[in-house]
Amino acid sequence: MKLPKGLDGVVVDQTKISSTQNAVLTYAGYPIKELQNAPFEEVVFLLWHTRLPSADELKAFRKLLVSKMVLPDETIRLMTRIAKEPQHPMSILRTTVSLLGTTNDVERDDPPRILGKMLTAIAAIIRIRDDQPVLHANSDWGVVENFVYLFSGKRPTAERVAMFNTVMVLHADHEFNASTFTARVVASTKADYYSCLTAAVCALKGPLHGGANEKVFKMLETIRQTGQEPTVYVNDQMATGRKIMGFGHRIYKNGDPRATILREIARQIAHETDNDAYFALQEQIRDYMFEKTHLHPNVDYYTALIYHCFGLDKKTFTMMFAACRTAGWLAHITEQQAEGCLIRPSSEYVGQTNRHYRADKEEM
Ligand code: COA
């Protein structure tokens, strides 16, 4: 029996939330290309209800989500201790998500409350680590505007809100990716939302998944600091068996549709923030990687530069991914709990057989 490597191509369950069939990403049937400028709240509603909201529903949903962008005082007090620890921010987030599931009001937590708490907690981790006060959301603004304000301390311009909105929309869901599948496995045991989300954050942290965006920026910094030719860097890395972060994808072999959209945002924001040199370097690496390997950039390649241009430290990039993907995780956890059964696959045993304890002990 030849087993598919890493479940490649294996359909493990059904979903109505999103699809990558024929390498086209759709949310509840709508192509991502058509949704790229839709308000993030509308996309969250779509993922959670598999239909678009009416104008009134959208208004009420936005108000609801923003009203949930708040953390209990006790949580902020505990987070202030945890977030100051020298561990990687994704480790801090992992503990924080678990912590969010232990406060008094957790019994009342539903997807809107949990999404609001997650976004606020991620922004708070950044602020606390930067020795800045934790800020409060403004009820007159939307979710994206508030989120950027909460982590940066500055009210973003309408253009920057639109850019970050697209980033959040493009990351919001991606069918059975590693972290979502992890969340669904935990949900399949009927565990609570926070247990599922903690597990999802753990899966996202790895550099083959969400952790890649930080590594992309590290690569760009290294090349610029050492003055190395990008081609030499790529050749050296690959000669020693290392992957080039931000390239390749399990599903998209002819290019990640999200990367095409993000490339234009990266080009624009890099220009506006005097980071053209980084973008030019990305273009050089992209061209050379295609020539050498025929691999295309994935979603993490350009977000690395976009987040840098938003003033974020590279260590916080994967938390940004988590902030955007929480909407999708919550949709999948809810769907799994409502419709799925226990996920418990089988394995092919390839170890030794026919051993006998007593006989082997006597021979020792
Ligand atoms: N750099 C160099 N080579 C790469 C590569 C990369 N980024 N991605 C894939 N390859 C090569 C592999 O070494 C492998 O070569 P081989 O057949 O000679 O062994 C081949 O391409 C197939 O890759 P594989 O890792 O088996 O495909 P996959 O579907 O299991 O992996 C990823 C997909 C995303 C894990 C993989 O492309 C990767 O590790 N990319 C870098 C990390 C990254 O950017 N992750 C974010 C994903 S959104």
Automatic annotation (TrEMBL):
<protein>
    <recommendedName>
        <fullName>Citrate synthase</fullName>
    </recommendedName>
</protein>
<keyword id="KW-0808">Transferase</keyword>
<dbReference type="InterPro" id="IPR016143">
    <property type="entry name" value="Citrate_synth-like_sm_a-sub"/>
</dbReference>
<feature type="active site">
    <location>
        <position position="300"/>
    </location>
</feature>
<dbReference type="InterPro" id="IPR019810">
    <property type="entry name" value="Citrate_synthase_AS"/>
</dbReference>
<dbReference type="GO" id="GO:0005975">
    <property type="term" value="P:carbohydrate metabolic process"/>
</dbReference>
<feature type="active site">
    <location>
        <position position="249"/>
    </location>
</feature>
<dbReference type="InterPro" id="IPR002020">
    <property type="entry name" value="Citrate_synthase"/>
</dbReference>
<dbReference type="InterPro" id="IPR036969">
    <property type="entry name" value="Citrate_synthase_sf"/>
</dbReference>
<dbReference type="GO" id="GO:0005829">
    <property type="term" value="C:cytosol"/>
</dbReference>
<comment type="similarity">
    <text>Belongs to the citrate synthase family.</text>
</comment>
<dbReference type="GO" id="GO:0006099">
    <property type="term" value="P:tricarboxylic acid cycle"/>
</dbReference>
<dbReference type="GO" id="GO:0036440">
    <property type="term" value="F:citrate synthase activity"/>
</dbReference>
<comment type="pathway">
    <text>Carbohydrate metabolism; tricarboxylic acid cycle.</text>
</comment>
<dbReference type="InterPro" id="IPR016142">
    <property type="entry name" value="Citrate_synth-like_lrg_a-sub"/>
</dbReference>
<dbReference type="Pfam" id="PF00285">
    <property type="entry name" value="Citrate_synt"/>
</dbReference>
<dbReference type="InterPro" id="IPR024176">
    <property type="entry name" value="Citrate_synthase_bac-typ"/>
</dbReference>
